[in-house]
Amino acid sequence: MNKKTLVLGVSLKPDRYSYLAVQRLAQKVEVVAFGLKAGQISNVNIETELFPYEDIHTVTLYLNPTHQKEYYDYILSLNPERVIFNPGTENPEFYNILKENAIFYEVACTLVLLSTNQY
Q1: What is the pLDDT of residue 1?
Q2: Residues spanned by the domain of 27
Q3: Closest by alpha carbon to 59, among 96, 18, 12?
Q4: Reduced to 3 states, what is the DSSP secondary structure of residue 27?
Q5: What is the Cα–Cα distance from 1 to 5, expressed in whole angstroms?
Q6: Which residue among 18, 44, 52, 64 sits deepest, i.e. has the most Cβ atoms within 10 Å of its Cβ?
Q7: Are 39 and 14 spatial neighbours (Cβ–Cβ below 8 Å)?
């Protein structure tokens, strides 16, 4: 499976879904991650700087819609094939921007997609 994934909005708290997503994604795909605090989860460095990654297939969001706005241009610059809006991140405004840029999006839970082999 070659679906290099950027997890945006990662927490270093082990009980957070973004933390679990990084752990589980790292078992299946190449993962890069961005959070407000630097650290490491399952050999994945959590970066605090936005890098111009290449070949990002999926961006999975763990940011509420208000905080997403500042990342719109960054996400678009990566030209991912899809953006996943996890529960609590639903954002119709961003859906429209993604559609205008021919980027597929889905409202889903990354952890559920992984556990049901739909990722």
Answers
A1: 61
A2: 5-115
A3: 18
A4: coil
A5: 11
A6: 18
A7: no
- The pLDDT tens digits for 77-117 are 999 999 999 999 999 999 999 999 999 999 999 999 999 99
Question: Per the structure, how many domains does the chain have?
Answer: 1
pTM beyond 0.85, yes or no: yes
Q: Which residue has the tokens 């111009």?
A: 52
pLDDT in tens, 32-79: 999 999 999 999 999 999 999 999 999 999 999 999 999 999 999 999
> What is Dmax (Cα atoms) for the chain?
36
CA gap 14, 69 in Å, rounded: 26
Give dist(CA 64, CA 35) in Å, integer. Answer: 13
Give the amino acid at 42.
S
Q: Are 64 and 88 in contact (CB under 8 A)?
A: yes
Are the CB atoms for 83 and 57 separated by under 8 Å?
no
Q: Give bridge partners of residue 107 from the DSSP assignment.
A: 85
Q: For residue 19, what are its two tokens?
A: 């933390």
